[in-house]
Design goal:
By secondary structure, the chain is an alpha+beta fold. The chain has 7 helices and 12 strands. The chain folds into 2 domains: 127 residues, Beta Barrel (OB fold (Dihydrolipoamide Acetyltransferase, E2P)); 51 residues, no CATH class. Helices cover 33% and strands 27% of the residues.
């Protein structure tokens, strides 16, 4: 009875395995495996989240994953299928747990929302270890988790739509300025941070902004 019970637990956590050569590394937590029957399967590494390519350490995370997997034979223990149709699993190469190595070396977070397997608590401890020694991305004072970064990007797309509604003001001969509600600095249209997350206060003139208690950005508001 005990053997049957253990088998049931294992099968519930890991339904299948996929083996083959790693032929592509899209980013730190996504690879593609080519099986012996020439079938390609995209794998999303289970229970972790690495920085996006545009984030700090995004490229380094991809490079680290490639160093462990590219061109090598890998076996994936599959736990799920995500909404994009990717197999979600733990990848092993020559006995090395790739998911775990990314966390241990400071190139990934334990994915709080989706890491539910029994070993996830141990992965969280490994993340805390990497943080304590400032490994990888933890060299940054306050690195942004990729799930928060993606959420902010979705918010920015909404703000861009809002910004387009004030374009007519600029075309009519008056400039518009965006004030950051947190820093109380306002930006001109040439500023890199013109449409930042907190830049939601709109001013038509520099005078209007300064009267509201906002300071001009030194580099792009003259």
């Amino acid at each position: 009875m005990l053997i049957v019970f253990l088998a049931t637990v294992v099968s519930a956590e890991a339904a299948s395995t996929i083996s083959g050569k790693v032929v592509s590394v899209a980013d730190g937590d996504t690879i593609t495996i080519l099986s012996s029957n020439n079938r390609q399967t995209k794998i999303r590494l289970y229970g972790i989240d690495t920085p996006e390519k545009a984030q700090a350490y995004g490229k380094q995370a991809k490079k680290f994953t490639a160093s462990l997997t590219a061109g090598k034979r890998a076996t994936t223990t599959v736990y799920d299928t995500d909404r994009y149709g990717r197999s979600v699993g733990v990848v092993f190469v020559n006995g090395t747990n790739v998911n775990e190595e990314l966390i241990t070396n400071g190139f990934a977070w334990q994915y709080r929302k989706y890491c539910k397997a029994s070993f996830c608590k141990d992965w969280l401890k490994k993340e805390e270890y990497a943080r304590s020694f400032a490994f990888g991305l933890w060299a940054e004072s306050n690195p942004q988790p990729p799930w928060d970064w993606r959420k902010s990007k979705r918010g920015q797309s909404t703000k861009r739509s809002y910004a387009s509604s004030i374009t007519s003001q600029s075309n009519s001969g008056s400039s518009s300025y965006h004030g950051n509600k947190r820093s109380h600095v306002f930006h001109g249209q040439s500023c890199q941070h013109y449409n930042c997350n907190n830049c939601t206060k709109i001013f038509r003139t520099i005078s209007e902004a300064t009267k509201a208690g906002y300071k001009p950005h030194k580099q792009c508001v003259r």
